[in-house]
Amino acid sequence: MARVWEADPSALFLRRLGKSPQELGVTEDRDGCPDIWELDNGDIAVIGRDLTEVYGPSLPAEATIAQDERLVVIPGSLLRAAKADIADA
């Protein structure tokens, strides 16, 4: 069955949304940096800790994770700092 939306692996990184992880103090160097990026096709790439196995069993009934998806967690400060860069619907 075809999905309504599918990630485009040819999309390129366009710009960081919000401040860098270093600016926010959520990392000490370049390794292990959570981040949020807009891709050139308008999609969003999120770099975070993969906690699929931890949160998968306790997902709310209306949420699911497909075999090819991962649940990632990022610091709340990272998303809040990106708010100004995210367009309204």
Per DSSP E runs of 2 or more residues, the count of β-strands stands at 5
Main sheet record: 3 strands, antiparallel
Helix content: 10-25%
SSE run:
EHEEEHEH
Structural class, by secondary structure, is alpha+beta
Spatial separation of the terminal alpha carbons = 28 Å
pLDDT average, as an integer? 92
Quick overview:
This protein is α+β, with helices and mostly antiparallel strands and 89 residues long.
Task: Please give the structural blueprint.
Blueprint: E1 13-16, H1 21-24, E2 35-39, E3 44-47, E4 49-50, H2 52-55, E5 72-73, H3 76-82
Antiparallel strand pairs: 1-2, 2-3, 4-5
Describe the fold and architecture.
With 89 residues, the protein is α+β, with helices and mostly antiparallel strands. It is 17% helix and 19% strand. It is built from 3 helices and 5 strands; from the N terminus they run E-H-E-E-E-H-E-H. The chain has helices at residues 21-24, 52-55, 76-82, and strands at 13-16, 35-39, 44-47, 49-50, 72-73. It has a 3-stranded antiparallel beta sheet, with helices on one face. The model has no long low-confidence stretch (mean pLDDT 92).
